[in-house]
């Protein structure tokens, strides 16, 4: 791929914009030597304004999503893409969220430009476990764990029962829920069906990958070991 197209597809600007960047000498190698549009240079040897070129395609990110932002490109309020570098919105192929967390849910949110990886993570067939911690409005009754794990729980307007989910009670009004599905507002609807209300919800892990010490509102790129963890057994409490 020609350098102009590569850099434009990474969101640095239109091809016309990138051509101007070459003309202005803003695209160099690590030694500061000016590069030209027809040069053949390894990705890792390209600098834009003395900064390394953004990661190539096949990029997967993990964000510790804060409350109050939506997983949308078009919402009129704050969106998760506002927390990424502006050019990440312009990448082609685009970065997409892997599933969604609603505005009132915080925690692990993944992004990728790899469509096959995205579908592998979200498919129930892959058995990728998502773990949430929920704070509830009322004390748990005590029968929720058996019901959630039964494989017979039906949600309103649904035609198929939920796959078994594992509930761990942390405190009378705090629980951890592990599940392989990701239906619309599933955690909130499950507790609502049990006569309770979720006051706060936080996703702590996907597969064997956890947020670690990633601060709220921050993000990092995942490497091959991180990707492998997505398909591993989730950590125990």
Mean of residue pLDDT values: 94
Strand content: 15-25%
* Termini gap: 47 Å
* Broad shape: elongated
Tally the helices: what do you get?
A: 6
Total DSSP E strands: 12
Q: Which structural class should the secondary elements be placed in?
A: alpha+beta
Unreliably modeled segments: none
Helix content: 10-25%
Order of helices and strands: HHEEEEEEHEHEEHEEEH
- C-alpha Rg (nearest Å): 21 Å
Q: What characterizes the major β-sheet?
A: 9 strands, mixed
Q: How would you summarize this macromolecular structure in one to three sentences?
A:
The protein is an alpha+beta fold and 237 residues long. It contains 6 helices and 12 strands. The N and C termini lie far apart (47 Å).
